[in-house]
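Hi U.,

Before I forget, here's the chain from the pilot set. I'm dumping it here mostly so it's searchable later in email.
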Amino acid sequence: MTDDRQEPSASESPESLLTGKSVSRREFLKIAGVAGAAVGVGAREPNATRLAAMAKRLATDTGFEVVNGALQLHGGYGYLRDHPIERVLRDVRVHQILEGTNEIMRVIVSRDMLGN
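Structure:
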């Protein structure tokens, strides 16, 4: 009996798809989210605080998701102190807390949008 299932090609592998997804999100974030917020803050727009909060939260949450996905590729080795991804994971998690937690960023955005 033969197995008709074929192995996925390199371009269809979970690692490749994860990398493509991460790169796509990062590039969009860089171009649209953070750049738009920076322009608004630089121009002293009235909604600059909301734009900065949105960009900070989006950037740090996306960074965490990308690094967490990379960690999945390394399995248990990624948690070892000697492995570079472990340090990157710690660093990106700290950025979700520095300059105001992402939960506070959500409060800032919602208050601004609701006029509170």
